[in-house]
Amino acid sequence: MSAPTANWSYPTAIKFGPGRVKELADHCKAAGITKPLLVTDKALASLPITAQALDILDAAGLGRAVFSQVDPNPNETNMEDGLKVYRAGGHDGVVCFGGGSALDLGKMIALMVDQPVSVWDLEDIGDWWTRANPDTIAPIIAVPTTAGTGSEVGRAGVLTNSATHKKKIIFHPKLLPVVTICDPELTVGMPAFITAGTGMDALAHCLEAFCSPHYHPMSQGIALEGMRLVFENLPKAYATPTDIEARAHMMSAAAMGAVAFQKGLGAIHSLSHPVGAVYGTHHGTTNACVMPMVLDFNRDAIEEKITQAAAYLGIAGGFEGFKARVESLRTELGIPANLTAMGVKAEDLDMLTDMALEDPSCGGNPVEMTRENTRALFEACM
Ligand SMILES: NC(=O)c1ccc[n+]([C@@H]2O[C@H](COP(=O)([O-])OP(=O)(O)OC[C@H]3O[C@@H](n4cnc5c(N)ncnc54)[C@H](O)[C@@H]3O)[C@@H](O)[C@H]2O)c1
Ligand SMILES: [Fe+2]
């Protein structure tokens, strides 16, 4: 099988397949966007894939501009700078082009063009999103260049509050892109450690959704098949960056992870969010680092489910076999085996524990997270 090409409409319109970025201008026009602001990050802005996307917009006569002041783990200053460019340029839509950082920041710009409330009032808590004026949210087209976060099919963006160093999940139903272009050729140039970390983020989404106790059989099925795609294709994409078929399957797995995690996330993400916010570590790499320890932490609640998953995935040895597979994948991908190796300091563990317990991902963890067991989990990760 070569890399698949397909048009999907779940959960939004997904134009999937190699080379499909060429359709970018057509989709802008169809969405009523005549003057897109392309939001990307500083490193991507100088790469040929970004020049190619801009050429496509230029050839169609769309009056585009670029905003690339996007940090990894983007913050509200990036958003405010982007909003100034958006408003000054009279733009009428956002093309989010990049990894999760650029996608999320582009979504925040689209959301906050003209809102009566602060972005922090739109955190993914209860019905806070109803505080926003939906009519001023700009249309979003997403073009992922990593295969991990799934932000391209999600209705949330992660924004770091640079004053408090807390990562906040900002939610609105209209943050779902009107069209997503999943072109695996765009992911070929990712640095190897980003291929590894983003791919493990997709696995973390599928695994945590699968283990979450909430009732959502549709997500359960998607999460299981998403895990299969990661186990089979991430080592191939890492070893042979030009393997377009493996890259395509990883793009599917990333989107599936984000679809699945409406069922819930868990301790992997609630630990990883504060670590990323405080130390600036890569999100997916941090998730992968703590994944085996979180499996142990949740063992009593998930052993049966993981044993079923292992059988489907062709992994021998039930829970232990599954955990060993995660550990060997982590080693194969060159991901640190503990948080100490990622720069986390023992003296920060109390603060990180407090922050983890505030993270909304805690709510989806199959074992209740308390101050005592979360602190012990952090220690086990060091
Ligand atoms: N919205 C969501 O649902 C969601 C889910 C998970 C994570 N996130 C967030 O997404 C962010 C992480 O996103 P990410 O893991 O995609 O990393 P990223 O967007 O921070 O990108 C990592 C690095 O890879 C580079 N890069 C990206 N694509 C490239 C390519 N094709 N070629 C060469 N270099 C490339 C970027 O320039 C950057 O330096 C975090 O802020 C995380 O919290 C959001
Ligand atoms: Fe994630």
From TrEMBL:
This is Alcohol dehydrogenase 2. InterPro entries: ADH_Fe/GldA, ADH_Fe_C, ADH_Fe_CS, Alcohol_dehydrogenase_Fe. Keywords: NAD, Oxidoreductase. GO terms for molecular function: alcohol dehydrogenase (NAD+) activity; metal ion binding. It comes from Thioclava pacifica DSM 10166. Transmembrane segments: none annotated. Residues 195-381 form the Fe-containing alcohol dehydrogenase-like C-terminal domain. SUPFAM superfamilies: Dehydroquinate synthase-like. Residues 11-184 form the Alcohol dehydrogenase iron-type/glycerol dehydrogenase GldA domain. It comes from the Bacteria. Belongs to the iron-containing alcohol dehydrogenase family. It catalyses: a primary alcohol + NAD(+) = an aldehyde + NADH + H(+); a secondary alcohol + NAD(+) = a ketone + NADH + H(+). CDD domains: Fe-ADH-like. PANTHER family: ALCOHOL DEHYDROGENASE, ALCOHOL DEHYDROGENASE 4. The lineage of its organism: Bacteria, Pseudomonadati, Pseudomonadota, Alphaproteobacteria, Rhodobacterales. Its cofactor is Fe cation.
